[in-house]
Write a structure and sequence with these properties.
- By secondary structure, this protein is an alpha/beta fold.
- The chain has one domain: 3-Layer(aba) Sandwich (Rossmann fold), CATH 3.40.50.150.
- Helix content is about 30%, strand content about 25%.
- It contains five helices and seven strands.
- The chain has a seven-stranded mixed β-sheet with strand order 3-2-1-4-5-7-6, with helices on both faces.
- Strand 6 and strand 7 form a beta hairpin.
- The longest helix has 13 residues.
Length: about 170
């Protein structure tokens, strides 16, 4: 895995040594392209962070800081290695907790952009979207999910083969 765009484009990312489904580089690149104009100087959150690729990609493209939420031991190891390798310890925080209860404690407008890439086949994406619809904890919520999985609410959908990214924005 590599950073796709921005000042760190082409740099390698550490990957978890566990069976995970990281966001494909092409999907991650296009997803961040869609948000390019919203990234400058903002605070983002990467839910179900895995290696932290989405948050790091956002910072590579101009985000000021990123919070990462991950509770898998192998993913946490890769995430911490990536934060250290990119010298982001002063611009990021890592929360070793489950993303669902974490978002239930967030107030409206806490972040400019939230990324969520929960496991396919679970209903965690639905729960994150439902929480965001109640309390929009970010101005923009981007969710990666299976293309055949319909999320609650109305968002802009972008399909990449069997993967869909849905963007929800505060009106």
């Amino acid at each position: 895995m590599r950073v796709v765009g921005g000042k760190w484009a082409g740099r390698d990312l550490h990957s978890p040594r566990a069976p995970v489904r990281p966001t494909a580089e092409a999907v991650r690149g296009r997803w961040l392209d869609l948000l390019e104009e919203e990234l400058s100087g903002v605070r983002v959150i990467d839910l179900f962070a895995g290696s932290g690729a989405l948050g790091i990609e956002a910072m590579s493209r101009g985000a000021r800081s990123a919070d990462f939420v991950e509770n898998g031991p192998a993913s946490l190891h890769a995430l911490k290695a990536n934060v250290a390798a990119f010298h982001l310890t002063k611009r990021s925080r890592i929360f070793r907790v489950d993303a669902i209860p974490f978002t239930e404690r967030l107030e409206a407008g806490r972040y400019a952009i939230a990324f969520a890439d929960p496991p396919y086949g679970s209903r965690k994406a639905d729960r994150i979207v439902a929480r965001w619809l109640e309390v929009p904890f970010a101005n923009t919520l981007g969710v990666e999910h299976a293309a055949d999985h319909e999320l609650p609410g109305r968002g802009d959908c972008y399909d990449f083969g069997d993967t869909r990214v849905t963007l929800f924005r505060v009106p």
